[in-house]
Amino acid sequence: VCNCNPRELRHSLPMAVAAVRRLLRPTSSAALSSAGRLLSSTASPPPNRSPNTNSPVSFDWSDDDESPAEPPPTSPAKNPAPPPPYEPFSKNPAAADPVDPTNLQEIFHRMRTGGLTDYAIKMFDGLSKDGLTHEALALFSVIRDKGAMPDVVAHTAVLEAYAAAGPARWRDAVRTYNRMLSGGVAPNAYTMAVLVKGLAAGDRCAEARKYLLEMLDRGMRPNVETCLAAFEAHVRMDKVEEGKALLEMMKKKGFTLDEEAVRGGTVKRGHVFRAVMNMLFGKPS
Question: SS3 sequence, the chain?
């Protein structure tokens, strides 16, 4: 447990990320081996493993009737340019997103050959910016103490790739999450947020509701961005009553949204925003 004050955290977070980059360089054999095993195809289901260790999990959906995953090609790893310095309080992303998020073959190829360090940085950054400093430093501690990538990073990286690939891939994102749970890997708040936002972006309202409530059941508090994504999807799909029902269920679980935080969490002022504000707070704008 970290009892750091905000001033100490301002200094400890960049140092922790720098240490992650030193421990797991994209060209290190441990990182490449982890990514390669994760993206390999196997016929058997993943074994039960500790949530803090690497496991040879398969993400080949070839047995499913649609949306099969493309097997990434194999090629020698290239030395990437060194990453920029980490700024924990910057609004810029901690790691660059892929140019074409629908090109899963290229994304999985990069995971396999370049490792998962950037995904660990993104997770660390997301947890830190949501105030989940203990969870972020615990993630770093696993990397520091074991010198290997936590399973939650690898699974979330694959899940995030599917979530960003567009509405047609939402089933693959959910399957990846379910495969993660069956492998004994516990999701964190960043994992759940990625899943909820991905489903909401694809207008999968029922699924977004399900996993938003699951976040609360797991003791996690979704951030404003995640909540807004879910409720905006309900507005876009003309499911306002279902959205109101979701809000009431969240309140019963002890979670309420702060109006000022919601207003500050978006720059949108169109009809969707007005409808969301009306749904959440009974105000049209």
Answer: CCCCCHHHHHHHHHHHHHHHHHHCCCCCHHHHHHHHHHCCCCCCCCCCCCCCCCCCCCCCCCCCCCCCCCCCCCCCCCCCCCCCCCCCCCCCCCCCCCCCCCCHHHHHHHHHHHCCHHHHHHHHHHHHHCCCHHHHHHHHHHHHHHCCCCHHHHHHHHHHHHHHCCHHHHHHHHHHHHHHHHCCCCCCHHHHHHHHHHHHHCCCHHHHHHHHHHHHHCCCCCCHHHHHHHHHHHHHCCCHHHHHHHHHHHHHCCCCCCHHHHHHCCCCCCHHHHHHHHHHHCCCC
Asked if 160 and 119 count as a contact pair (C-beta separation under 8 A), the reply is yes
Q: How many residues are listed for the chain in this entry?
A: 285
Model confidence at 241: pLDDT above 80: yes
* CB neighbours of residue 129 within 10 Å: 18
Spatial separation of the C-alpha atoms in residues 55 and 38, rounded to whole Å: 7
Task: Give the pLDDT score at 62.
Answer: 38
With beta carbons less than 8 A apart as the criterion, state whether 39 and 175 touch. Answer: no
Question: Has residue 118 got a pLDDT over 60?
Answer: yes
Which range, 41-55, 173-187, 255-269, has the best average confidence (pLDDT)?
173-187
Angle of the 117-129 helix axis to the 189-201 helix axis, nearest 10:
90
Model pTM? 0.73
**Angstrom distances, CA of residue 73 to CA of 62, 107, 166:** 16, 11, 22
